[in-house]
Design a protein that fits this description.
alpha/beta, 7-stranded mixed β-sheet, two-stranded antiparallel sheet, 9 helices
């Protein structure tokens, strides 16, 4: 079958199946293009007139439709800000808005990535700040194994250090920038998640009753791990309103609708 026609056929099947998107794509066509191209081992700029074998990706299409597994897990591949990452179901699929904010900050010398998961933000920070050293931490051993693989893939092992830690418990030193994409989905929202999100590790999504269980701890403790003038950049998703209710005294800045910035001196 012609490549372009296979993509369109797959997109029609995805639309008919009523799939949910949000793991690197936001519509049936883009999801189909990603699954077909990368499932066939082809680059994104492939000639759509190329003759390809439909049978080679049929099992992937059926898994996407029948089991609602996100394409990124089926391919063990995800892209964020133009950079490729290995992923599997030990980590959430990279999609943090923090990735697109890094280049707009004053270059830090020391960066801490809390709840690193796949290590995507640690890798992107190391790329954005060539003179910085990065510490990436997570409590889950499986996540750290995935992060280690991505760090090695991008040859950043000399600049990114992995630490197994429950937030700041086993993290040492002070940092100019702390980035965090922690679990922030509220208990009510967890119950309503589409099937695709239920393939992701629950512990990387569930943020407690109001979604802020870990976020509030970060705000309380980050000051002790920040240099003077240092910044905490944290994603909270739809829990923004809840955060503003519980911390009305803090002067949050919002470089993105779901990401707040707080300087050490503003944390009280």
């Amino acid at each position: 079958m012609i490549l372009g026609k296979l993509i369109e056929k797959t997109a029609r099947r995805f639309r008919a199946a009523g799939l949910h998107y949000g793991h690197g794509t936001d519509n049936a066509h883009d999801e189909a293009a990603f699954l077909v191209l990368r499932g066939l081992g082809l680059p994104f700029d492939s000639d759509l007139g190329t003759d390809v074998s439909e049978g080679k990706i049929e099992h992937l299409v059926q898994q996407r439709i029948r089991q609602r597994i996100p394409a990124a897990y089926l391919l063990n591949e995800s892209w964020l800000d133009g950079v490729a990452f290995y992923v599997d179901q030990r980590v959430i699929i990279p999609r943090s808005h923090i990735a697109f904010l890094l280049k707009g900050l004053k270059p830090p010398r020391r960066v801490l990535d809390l709840c690193t998961g796949s290590g995507c933000l640690a890798v992107l920070a190391a790329m954005a700040y060539p003179r910085a050293t990065v510490t990436a931490s997570d409590i889950e051993r499986g996540a750290l194994e995935v992060a280690r693989r991505n760090i090695a893939r991008h040859r950043l092992g000399r600049r990114i250090r992995l630490v197994r830690s429950d937030l700041f418990d086993d993290v040492t030193g002070r940092y100019d920038l702390i980035v965090a994409n922690p679990p922030y989905v509220s208990a009510a929202a967890m119950k309503k998640l589409p099937p695709e999100y239920r393939h992701e590790p629950r512990g990387a999504l569930a943020g407690g009753l109001d979604g802020l269980f870990l976020v509030k701890q970060m705000i309380r403790k980050a000051g002790s791990r920040l240099q003077a003038g240092g910044t905490l950049l944290c994603e909270v998703g739809d829990s923004r309103r809840a955060l503003l209710r519980v911390c009305p005294e803090l002067p949050f800045k919002w470089p993105h609708a779901s990401v707040f910035a707080l300087r050490r001196e503003e944390m009280g």
